[in-house]
Amino acid sequence: MVRLTVHLIAKSSNHSKTCRSESLQQYLKKLTHLNFSNKSIEDIDDLSICRNLTVLYLYDNQISQICNLGFASNLTHLYMQNNNISCIENLSSLHNLSKLFLGGNSITVVEGLEELKSLKELHVEGQKLPRGEKLVFDPRSISSLSETLCILNICKNNIDEIWDLAPLRKLAHLFAADNQLQDIKELETVFSQWSQLRLLDLSRNPVCHKPKYRDRLITVCKILEDLDGKQINELSRQFLINWKASKDAKKKLEDEKDVRGQITNPLTTDIQRGPPHDRSSSLRKPSEFGKPDVTFRIDRVQADSRGGRSRGLNIPMRSGRL
Length: 322
Fold this sequence. Notes:
Elements: E1 2-4, H1 6-10, H2 13-18, H3 24-30, E2 33-35, E3 41-44, E4 55-57, E5 77-79, E6 99-101, E7 109-110, E8 121-123, E9 136-137, H4 139-144, E10 151-153, E11 173-175, H5 184-191, E12 199-201, H6 213-220, E13 226-227, E14 230-231, H7 234-264, H8 268-273, E15 294-298, E16 313-317
Helix pairs in contact: 5-6, 6-7
């Protein structure tokens, strides 16, 4: 097992050049940049003597756990991409860390970042995930980064939604290519909350094939300068914004007309159908059926031209009606 130790550092060429003029201890105390990338390192030993360390390169190794970095309170850049890390941990002391590179590991949950109050860049692209799983985000970490994080790289992580990232209102660059994003309305809702978004890469996501995909996102992202590697012309942006405003105004006017029509003519539908049919006017009561006709004889005495009486008039009528 290859461990990163002070003795391994002592063998580095940088110290060899300065070892004649200062001791190893003096050299380690003054050290600000340490590059041990691609050295087959599997573990990090106690390096607390390197208290002024600001940049640490440990990418392309075989490290499986982030550990023994609690001393590095001055660390601003940490490069640990392409290792075997499965959990983001033991970073709570790195209050000055501004850039964290963890791409190409085996991380399934973005977590453990609550104390990184200065973090501006987070790179977690291309995690080696189990089949069918996606990279997920701990709401506590996302909330803690809402006022600082400017650049986020989550490419190639099988991500199919970004609701959990909505609190990142300071985000200026989002790299999310090669994922499974497909809901254009969700993207519009989230991006509309990111007023500082200038660069956006969603290439090779299913959503890219939606109708008016590019136009809709350019309209929502008011200051976006680059979408999927293509620059945005300001004239085109203004045309799309004006077109959307005109379309929305027209729809609002039509909706208002429909509402006014329903208020002023509430019985329009009933008038078109006609008045309700009164069945009682055309149907006899059950008791009226089956009765025989009754003839009433009305005798009137009239003088005819010869002074005689006229015959009585026989008027057939049904019982109950005159």
